[in-house]
Amino acid sequence: MIDLEKVIADTQSLISIDSQNPGVGEGECGAWVSRRLSDMGLTPTAMTVQKNRDNIIATVPGGDSPRLVILGHLDTVPIGEGWSVDPLGGEIREDKIYGRGACDMKGGVAVALGLLEALGTHNVTPAGDVVFVATVDEEAPDMAGAHHLVASDVLRPTDQVIALEPTGTKLRIAQMGLRWLTVKVTGKMAHAGRAHLGIDSAHVMARIVDRLKGHIEALPYVDDILGRPRFTCGTFHAGVATNVVPPTAEASFDIRIVPPMVIEDVIPMVDTIAHAVLRDFPGATFTIDGLGAPRPPVRAAEDAPIIRGLRSAYQSVVGSSLPQGDDDGHEAYTDASMVAALTGSTSCTVFGPGSTDRAHTADEFVPISDLELVSRVMWQMVFDWDVICRATTD
């Protein structure tokens, strides 16, 4: 079994290492993970993604069954303000571990480390290789770590991939598509007292935002797991002074889609809305630029070994079925999603400790009970892996 006390200690140690992105980055955190893996007797490999940013890969060799690939990212979002505890302290209160990255996702990384160590401690040869990949840059628009992992040809078509991201210990079998955009409107500067001589770029942008939001909310697409498409105008900046007609406005859009929409639909949709708005503002212009990597919607196959394995292991450990139905979807995009998008794999999923509601917040925490449950489920799944994979192919 996985040693829960070591998982707790590793979670605290990882939290204590600042790995904000953007910010100091993952270098120190990656070095710590490499040392931890080496202390287990494994031989980690560092694959350089960018300067001082390495994906760390370690493998416990197994039999001929499909490999289990466990993904865990090392970066966190910025710490931000509003904390009542030390965000790098790893403090335990009421059986919760607090700190930036506690649930997103240093707790998940600690579980993966615990699994690899337990296999060695108990001299268990898994039915298939167990591969752990600690990635960089998951929290950034480009998701460079996942892209590099796929481009490096480390993965195989038969790999069963899981990201131990925070899901509240529920299975996340599908994820919404996501496209970030930067839209810029150029109008015409004028004195506010002679506003009719200018073109108010802020007004134009506000119209685009309002019309786009209404359009997306009215789309007829409703996925049985993911629900409806969503739109957020995350930032909006315009103007140079209170008494000046703003010559430019810039906004960032977060657009999340569901099947049957495809990610290539997003920019043409925004372009159509913007052109329609600008017909009321002669002389104004606009541009649309993609921000980061396009992220199409993805969904794992019900009969994939990783899905069957998680459900079977959860049933064995808890005595009840994994939550299904509307709770199966996932709003956030993960490295597992990006791997699925880039490779076409339907054997990628998400299951892990902590709640998405606590990720990216002040006083982020992961419940110790979640760390224990995910550890037990992962151990059970690896223990039953040969039976699971044979049942899938029968």
What is the topology?
Blueprint: H1 4-15, H2 27-39, E1 45-50, E2 53-64, E3 68-73, E4 92-93, E5 96-98, H3 102-121, E6 128-135, H4 144-151, E7 160-163, E8 174-175, E9 177-186, E10 190-191, H5 201-217, E11 230-238, E12 244-245, E13 248-257, H6 266-278, E14 285-295, E15 298-299, H7 305-318, E16 329-330, H8 335-343, E17 348-350, E18 365-367, H9 368-383, H10 385-393
Parallel strand pairs: 3-6, 3-7, 7-17, 8-16
Antiparallel strand pairs: 1-2, 2-6, 4-5, 5-18, 8-15, 9-13, 9-14, 10-12, 11-13
Helix pairs in contact: 1-3, 3-9, 4-8, 5-6, 7-9, 7-10
Cofactor: Zn(2+)
Family: Belongs to the peptidase M20A family.
GO molecular function, one term: metal ion binding
CATH C-level class of the largest domain = Alpha Beta
Main sheet: strands, sense, barrel: 6 strands, mixed
CA-to-CA gap between the ends?
29 Å
| Molecular shape | elongated
InterPro entries: Bact_exopeptidase_dim_dom, Peptidase_M20, Peptidase_M20_dimer, Peptidase_M20A
Family: Belongs to the peptidase M20A family.
Domain Peptidase M20 dimerisation: 173-274
GO molecular function: hydrolase activity; metal ion binding
